[in-house]
Structure formats: C-alpha cells, structure tokens
Amino acid sequence: MLNNSIRGLLLALAVFCFHTSNGQEQEGACITTWYHDKPGAVSISFDDGGYTQYTEAYPVLEKYSLKATFGIVGEWVREEPSMSAEPNYFEIRKMGWKQLLELYDHGHELAAHGYRHERYNKFDPVDTLARHMVQIKLLIESRIHQPVLTIHYPYSFASGNIHEAALRAGFLFGRTGLDTVNSGTPRDMHLLATHSILNAHEPDSTTFLRWLDQAEGNWLILMYHNLFSENSREMSLIHGHNVEYSYSLPKESFEMQVRETIYRDYWIAPISTVGKYIMERDNTQLRFIRCKDKIILVASTNLDTRIFNQPLTLEVNIRWRKVKVTDGLQDKICETKNNKLLIDINPESVIIISKTK
Ligand SMILES: [Zn+2]
User: Fold this and answer.
1) What is the rounded (10 degree) CA torsion for 311, 189, 112, 245?
2) 68-82, 229-243, 246-260: lowest mean pLDDT where?
C-alpha cells in the first residue's frame, strides 16, 4: 500500500489513459489484456499424476520453456513412482513426490485433484465439501510450503455446492469441463472451462486448430492425462478393455499440439499464473503523471501482493523515441515502437520514464 498522503497527491495529479474516438492514441498507459500484449492465453493442464507426464510431457515442455499445471490425487502419490488405479480399472504408474517436486522446482504449478479420485457430492453442505478439499490442499502445501491456488475438480464435476466449496476451501481457481474457452474476464474463476484431449484422434487436428482460433482474445485451458505410445503395455490394456476414450496420446502428437500453440504466439502459462494476471489486471489502479521530460506511473492494488505477485504488462503511449525506465531497482534504456512501449510492472509499484537522447 502506498502512503496515503502520496496517494492523495498522485490522485490530484492523475491523468487516466484514454483513446480518442478516431483511434489515434494520446499519451497514456493501460494494462494489456494479456501478459506481454499477447493475443490470448493458453494453459496446459494435466490430471491424475500419470508417470508419462514426467517421462514424456515434461521434456517437451522443457524443450520449449513452457510451464504447465499438474493436478494431483492425494492417495495416489507415494515418495517414488508407484502403481495405482480407481476401482474396476487397471493400474497405471503414477509420479511420486520426487517427480512432482522436481516439476514444482522447475516452475510448474501443482494443483489439487481430490484427495481421492471421486466426484464430490454436489448435495453435501459447503462446509463438508470444503473440508474434503482442504485435505488435498494441505497435503500438497506440506510439501511445497506455498499456497495451492488451483483445484481441478475430479471428473471436472463442479455442480451444486462444489464450486462454492472450492472458494471456501481457499482456492482461487477451479477448473471444470464445459468444452469451451474462457473469456478474457471469466464470469466465475471457480468454474473455468476446459477443452479435453480424449485420445490421439479426438480432437482431430482441424478441431484442435479451431480451439486455438477461439483462444484469440480469450483463455483456452487444455486438459491432458497420459502420453502412452501406441505399442505400450498400457495402450494394449486400454484397447483390450474396449475403453471409449483412452485419455492418452503419443508424445509426438502432444508436441505437435504444443508447437501449433506456440506458433500462434499465445501466452502459455499455468492456470494460477493466468488467473492471477486477470485478477490483478482488473483490480489495479494506474495513475499516469506527466511532468516535462518525465512520466511517473503509479500502480496500486487492493489485492494481497504476497499472492498476487504476477507482473503486469503496461502499454505506454509516448512520443519519445528513446527512454530510460526506472523501477526503483534498476534503470533500463528502451526504444519505443510506433510511439508505444511495453513494460512489466508489479501491481504495487512506481515507475519513472524519462526522455533520453
Ligand atoms: Zn482425474
């Protein structure tokens, strides 16, 4: 929080960002819809903690420097990889804490996916449901020592009291099904829509590209499970059981989908990272103060910056070609492009932009 008297003074000086009706931009600044002014956001998410997420997906994500969200089922995680299954289904090797913590240490998000892999009962009271959800939340937090912000509802089932319970349990974001994309400002952060990868052919490439088209200006969340190769033991078991959806695709198909997403230049980030950006963007006030050869930008928010620490991107419209940007930590010389400058700021910060030669 800024000191109140400084806040008052800045308010008195404030000039807000505006655009003239003929589209010509005046001097001003605003927070871009997406980080780094990307055309849309995509989150890659995984469920159930299958071991191939570590052996097959993780190397692809590392190759392209991407971070994803991994939903964990509490009772399926041992220290080392282990076999587990839900009733009447064959066992699949799961990641242990060793693998999950490695993912976390590399910047991936760990999300709750139920202590047990069971649908929550939508008729249970909110308090009861929240108590169940807190169980998996605390289990993960005891390992990462940071708050777990995202829940992937088991079976994407979030009807009745379930999404309200997620809020009560302290989750900021809840991922459900719905087979669509989220808008730039989702109506309910505890009911985030997801497109699911059902097998190697569903979605087919045309459908997948259509989903990417829909991500323009929006937030697409993809849900993956396993990356079994066609000749693996697991795939023959799946075929043998006549399962309709294998929830699995080969590594090559996964990498193809990742490449298509990168090609669109979307912002690819974990669910809590994109969610935090949206909440900060919509709850940060910006003051633009112009004095001679300097512009002072003041960002302030009512959100708790210990959690809401995702940098925001500002688009600053100025007529100077070369500027010095000072954020209190370091000075940086930047050149504007078409009278525009993109800079990253914290939701609670003061930036000074000075004209330089
Ligand atoms: Zn699941």
Assistant:
1) -120
2) 229-243
Q: Which residues pair with 46 in a beta bridge?
A: 70, 224
Q: Could you read off the pLDDT of 287-341 as tens digits, one per residue? A: 999 988 999 999 999 999 999 999 999 999 999 999 999 987 788 999 999 999 9
Ligand 1: distance of its center to the CA of 308 in Å? Answer: 28
Q: Which residue has the tokens 């990168």?
A: 262
Length of the chain: 357
Domains observed in the chain: 4-36+285-355 (2.60.40), 39-265 (3.20.20.370)
Q: Which two tokens stand for residue 304?
A: 């708790």
What is the whole-number distance in angstroms between the Cα of residue 65 and the centre of ligand 1? Answer: 25
Q: Which two tokens stand for residue 207?
A: 């459908």
Distance 155 CA to ligand 1 centre (A): 6
DSSP letter, residue 40: -
3-state SS assignment for residue 97: helix
Residues whose beta carbons lie less than 5 angstroms from ion ligand 1: 47-48
Stated as kind and residue range, the H or E segment containing 338 is none
Tokens 């112009």 belong to: 290
How far apart are the CA of 312 and the centre of ligand 1, in A? Answer: 32
Q: Which two tokens stand for residue 46?
A: 């995984």
